[in-house]
Fold these 4 entries.
Entry 1:
Amino acid sequence: MPRRPAGHTRGRAAVLASLTVTALVTTGQPAGAAPTGTESMNQAFEQAAEEYGVPRDLLAAVGYGETHLNGHAGRPSQDNGYGVMHLVSNPVNHSLEKAAALTGESTADLRKDTGTNILGGAAVLRSHADALGLDTAERSDINAWYPAVARYSGAEGAVSALYADTVYTFLAQGLRATVAGGERVFVTSRPVSPDKGPLAKADVTVQSPDYPPALWVAANSANYATGRAATLDKVVIHVTQGSYAGTISWFQNATSKVSSHYVVRSSDGQVTQMVRDKDTAYHAKSANASSLGIEHEGFVDDPSWFTDTMYRSSAALTTYLCDRYGIPKDRSHVIGHSEAPGNDHTDPGANWNWTYYMQLVGGSGGADGLSFGAYTTQSSGSTGPQVTAVQTLLNQQGYEAGAADGVFGSATRSAVQAFQTARGLSADGTVGPKTWTALLSAGTTPTLVTGASGDAVKRLQRSLTAALGRTVAVDGAFGANTDKAVRDYQSTRGLSADGSVGPATWAALQSGR
């Protein structure tokens, strides 16, 4: 992280702020001390959702996007946000004070008590919905809440859309998390088509001038210096102590006096550049002039943020920067914020896997466990890596398939049936071509055309392999072979065979056609 220190409860018992969470799909272990309150986090979400008329899954997805449902014992984030719902008190965002006014609860309780904090988050979300004029029918449609979620971010324009897109990604992909004490919080995957309104034109589309795969969102000019006073010789690894969109917004805030060159998102490894490589970001005190800073979404005490996708994306960026500027790829020149001279920060912390990261920077890789040349039918009694892939996908999307052990047992069959029912497929518990296609394509639905690249293209390539019954190479690059596969799929499903993967093509794939 950069060098800035980071009436409606009606007698309901509160979950203590020591309640913490880690994503099962990452670590499989709960973190922190068990709660001593009598109210579970699921109850807190359900009660807050009912009291303020906010969809329960939306509320949970906002909280997960902000903190992975970890209240961090009431400690503030980088931009002075608190609790599971990240209620903020800083010069440009006063959602903490707003929550206090709406609920009648004290700011102290809203900061430290998880149940009260979730109630406050629901109240703030509802207030944004009311300000936008959402009526009862619209509030029952989760897609109509997109502008309210964007406002909850405290950001504006493209950055607020980036925030809302992340929340709707979690709704599309599903999520599951285990809180201390073993309670599990689920959001099952579903097709989403958010009503973005004017924000539909606010997507971040400008590419980085220095690193082609990255987006470009400029930091406020008060938060960096033009040029450099020293030779560039190191890369500094940071952890944001906040969310991806929140960090980008904070670096655009002139009062923050902090920035970094790049920010990396946890869920999919998306990279945004905010300061040009030739300029000096304010991120590491005495090392500012001689280094490039890379912020990683998350919190140092919660390893669930450090996904394999983020490690790989960040390592690819670091490799590129080292090669471009002649920086040695070793631990003397790729360092943590805590290792920069004169710094008092601890990030990236003990949960950052330096050994793995440096192996990736050095060029080693590995199979993803989801990509196969053909997807064969899996059913009760099946075993092997494709069963593991089914279990992994189901668990990631909030359907409890049990351990990803490669054995198709009763828990996996029940999860498959639940997924099939949700997608309108025959709930026979067997994973054939249609269920494979729907499982592999589940998630966000960005428009993809020739020249696109990244994880969404890989997801498309896997689902086309299942749908067409022939191998479509999974390389993350939308080239001629992928274009042909898309057109073949579109023509055989009665779609416009234009080679562009838009809402209609994604909808067909996600329904298993």
Note: The first strand starts at residue 21 and ends at 23.
Entry 2:
Amino acid sequence: MQKLTELPILRVGLIGSGFIAAFHLQSMLGVRNVSVGGVYSRSAQRRARIADKARSLGLGQARVFDSIEAMAISGEVDALWLLTPNDTRLNIMREIHRVTKAGAPLRAVACEKPLARTLAEAREMRRLAEDAGLLHGYLENQIFSTAVIRGKDIIWRRAVPGSGRPYLARAAEEHSGPHEPWFWQGDKQGGGVLSDMMCHSVEVARFMLTAPGANRQSLRLVSASATTANLKWTRPHYAADLKKRMGIDFAKRPVEDFARGILTMEDADGHQLMIEATTSWAYVGAGLRIQLELLGPEYSMEFSSLSTGLKVFLSRTLTGSEGEDLVEKQNAEQGLMPVVEDEAGIYGYTDENRHMVEAFRLGTSPAETFDDGVGVMEMLMGLYRSAELGQTVHFPDPELEHYVPPVAR
């Protein structure tokens, strides 16, 4: 790859117009040296709406394009943010590869988690980006969470030198179910809650266990053990609810709504390390709950997204429409409720975009790349195969190269 010149402003082109695209826009209010140069989505109505939102936030001209090629060759964007459903990403990356090889003036592509539906697809995503000569970034927001960044810094700076590295990371993410129908469809999403949410959990846990400045590959993956289950959404009442709201027959073709996994790893000195991850679409609390722990010989760290400093109480006489103005995946509008006052910052989107924008603007590779996205998919496929076989999977496992989880077949 030729050396890239520094840009005064990175002009981002958004591919996608759903919930996550709106989240990225909100987070970019806290990012310097960025503008939204263009927007593309399959839906003309939705791409116009997300472009209007970008302009209303003062993030740039956000020109609406009717194809990826038109946006890529326009000269109005420098980097693309790929934010579409999982089943579309590989074909979109092929199109980005084609237009870049044909001369489109792009320097980088960033892709929302997970990178793909399978390990084979993830490897192809990386190959296409590298063959096109593009910088690439993997958009895993939780490793950029303000609590994770601050907590990891303190542990590794104050605790590790006096007692040794951390050896156990726990990560749990739970809510009451996704927003869009495609998340519930295994062939489109690539799985169920293990694919959708454990991609966050295993990577933020691996990040916390990784020494500052080292890449994630410095930890050798040893084994995976997992259990998946259908706890809530296959029950007739809830399956009927999904059919009414989402138009999908979940009773006929379900995906897991609960997953628990253990990954064993080794560092360069042969120390055994553990990741314990739990994810669920069957949790009904105030809203999305993220819980993280990092344990070492003489210390520990913990974080819970619902243990907020700000809470509000609304009595039973106060009624109103349903919303998510207090917390993502909000389940109530009355009682004592936590308020996540800066979701974009606390969940990591602001620092994630700040980091990616600055790396791409300067022409350097970011700290989280498609290499990490491939690593995440290897962990997830190992966990799915373990759950299917009912036994521990050991790495490297050549069967994972073309493995497809049962719910996605």
Note: DSSP finds twelve helices and 15 strands in the chain.
Entry 3:
Amino acid sequence: MTYLTKTYRCLPLILALFLSSGGAFAQDVTADSIAAAVAEPAAEVPTTTVGAGEGDPALGAALWKENVCGSCHAGDMKANLTGPALGGVEERWAGEPREHLYEWVQQSQKLIGSGKSAQALAVWNAWKPTVMSNFTNLSNSDVEHLLAYIDGMYRGTYAKPGSTLNGPAVAAEVETDNTWLFIILGVSLLLLSLILARITSNLQYMVSATEGATPARRTLVQVLTSRGMIAFVIFVLVVLGGYTTVNHAIDLGRQQDYQPDQPIKFSHEVHAGIHKIECQYCHDGARRSKHSVIPAVNTCMNCHRAIQVGSQYGTAELTKIFASIGWDPSEGAYIQNYDQMTNDQARDIYQKWIANTFISEGGDPDDVDEVVEEQWDGIYAALTNEYTGDERIAGPIEWTRIHNLPDHAYFNHAQHVTVGKLKCQNCHGPVEEMEVVYQYSPLSMGWCINCHRETEVQFEDNDYYKSYERYHEEIKEGVRDGVTVEDVGGLNCQRCHY
């Protein structure tokens, strides 16, 4: 038995050497790769001066968004808002040096005060006392990019921003999938275990034969069907089955990245991003109640009684709002007894509006019937529901809910927004950059608990936390830097599951 005992003692050493050699090889490769990456110099982004009329509309789109130009100027470049419509601006300034147009964008009041630009004085006389903001951060090349974007949007030759401002667009980092690596490692370890099992069986046979016994050599099939192997396989299946079951149970009801189509193509990127509309202007329940609430159409009409044609979809989407609440954009007034009208009567009103707007904006008269029918079909589909039997155009808009916590989990928006002074983006992500809203966070129990452990409560000037005198004293004495939600009971089960 001495030979067999020595062999068993050597097997762990052989296995360790095998695994360590593979690890050392991986480390060498990684070190070489890192060294090569560090040694390679970073590529420099060239900076060039852009000539008149040579701007890039994609860069202009980024500048437009970064400098919030849409807060004063219409995105379609055709309508007057706080500032004038920008479509055709280059033609209007064509009679003056190009530098005057640059100066107008960068420091309009300075150009007006100099008296050297007749066009600047004309615009000022037409729009005063409204003062255009200074944009001294913009270079002449930046202005050219903006002009290219404005012209593209005005003439319809540019559809949507597609590049970044500072140099070429950087490709998104691609996550590597190591599934095949793990499969190869697993198969290799399985083969290694079979080889070692075979070696052990042979050694046992040799030892038994040396001691004068008449052992029976076990075949591979006998090894694989032995009680020990069957017990091991059952154990592995139970572990894997339990792991899979628990993981799927945890994911039950979660819908991170859920991004459903809505009945109206409402762009948060346009409203919250470009126009900087405060989240709580529409979702005003977030500051005072458990629910943030979905705004009623009346809230939409505060702005869209004046803005009746969308910069991206024209009349196609905004007419859905008008048809829902009974606003006649042709007359600029609410329709009397609209809730008693039939769908056919409503159709006549809004098809007339769509057709007149299409023709007034230079649409082809031969296409007007097709456009009207297409938009009306969209209105009918958005405002009716065949599953619930709702065939009426008039009435509230049925938005598709995205964020939905389980009934046994209590969450109060006011507690987080008003008391905790959290921003909407803490949970909902960069909504101001979303064309179509999706669920940004997992909203799982573990995610909420981690937030409560890491988030510091804003004690200063917050009357809600005045009763925590000991914490206030410890902060004054320098004993603690801050107080987390966990410190004030944010991990108690009853906080969310009472």
Note: Strands lie at 327-328, 333-334.
Entry 4:
Amino acid sequence: MGCVECRYLEAASTNNLIARMSLKFKIWLKELFLILSSIFFSVFVLPFLLVFFFCPLYAYRRVVIFLATVFKPRFHTALNLDSCLVVCDDIQNRPRNSFCFVLYLKGKIPYNDLVGRVETVLDKRPQLTCTLTRWLSVYFWEKCKNFSLSNHIFQNEESDPDKLSELLLNMIEKGYPTGNPLWELIYFPNYAHPEYATTSAVLLRIHHVLGDGMAYMALVRDLCDPDPTMDKEIEKMLKTLRKKLTISPLKKFAYLAELLFVTPRQTVYNCLKGFNSQVIPMATNNSGSSGVTQFAKLMDISLIKRISKKTGVKVTSIIHAGVAGAMRRLILEKGGRADGNLSIIYVLPKMNHPGTMTNNSFAMPLICPMTPEPSQAARLARVSDQFDRILSTPLPLGMMFTASLLGLMNETFGLMKWGMPHVGGCLHSNFAFVGEPMKLFGHVVETPILYTGLQPGAHHLVVGTLSYNGKFMIQLLGSRAAFPERDDVVKFADYVREEFDMLDATGSDENDYLPPQFRELDKKKN
């Protein structure tokens, strides 16, 4: 009997070894294919596209913009190419590229005073009084002929928290009226939020084509009470950061030469990694579901700072490592494969961002393996290394260049409806408000909550991590196709917290937190 058991255990061990070798071979084969594909595209396809397709398109765009200054005096300015990435949207019916920012206030403000504050903001931001138009295949902001502030600012007296929560969620995909600027503001004087201990709220919604996250944050600060001391501190901090990250002209030239002639493959390879990423599995009977679900949760900022002090790794890397680990666990739990790579699209502002109403950001695919790391610290080291390379390689220039090329193509063929492929496991962006809490007419903004749109098919989860007033909050927005119930996104937030706990307990074995059916398959020898 013992011999039979020994033979059975030996056979099982052999089968497990074969399975692990087969998995490693598949991963190696896929990696080889991506490398060869990126080399082929960079050498034989990309040069011809740049010379014979993109360069003529860009020259045509510049000519049209010049002609507009002569023949179209009502045009304010042309959209920049980054904004053209999100211009093709069903804006009047069901937009997928809106920002909704809710400011929960400790106190109530006079509605007429709020209207007056918005009028002041409009003088600084002319795009907020313009409509989107297209002339000779180029998008412009055109001064609105019949602009009225009453079409954009409203007061809602509703006090039922459940009804208000549903209303806020529906605002993400609510259409914009034809012929009007793409924004609105709603004041809720009776919205008492029990968790935040607030008594009113203000919602500001804009379409992504008006600006990115940093432009939106600057707009919110303009709406709130001025704080000259804090504004000076923020400007001083940004100047120091920009000076630290400034690249000399010689270094820029070297990066450009390397990008064009030596390593364009690196950019192409990272883009292919994004398309080849594992994604959230969805049930067949639920793949066509519409709508979104949202959840926000406070995290222990002292825990993250403790990890940073212990490991010497920046807070940004720790946050992203937690998100990456949680996404991997979610994919495995929903029946995803334990091979290949997980690519999470991380959105970053460009360092020359002017803070005005425009888009000046780019996306970087940060890659982690789906097979388990030896420990959580190993994943953190990998993520930290990728963030460090953003500042010391031409890869960010390549990703910015790629975004501009896609924007140029999107603008030229903007009347066509493009199906968005899966790009990465999810979208992640980090927001940080520096200094004292914001105030609106003397009332403290206790908590800001961000709701973002979802690109259909491209990604089913947006992860926003926000630092404000000494608090750290994770804000999740998922499609109902991938997260049919709110508890599904709540579980993801819990996973992020558990990832932080594991990082705090150094040396944790990642397999201890996997679903049992994956532990043997994923087991990796150090």
Note: The CA atoms of residues 428 and 463 lie 5 Å apart.
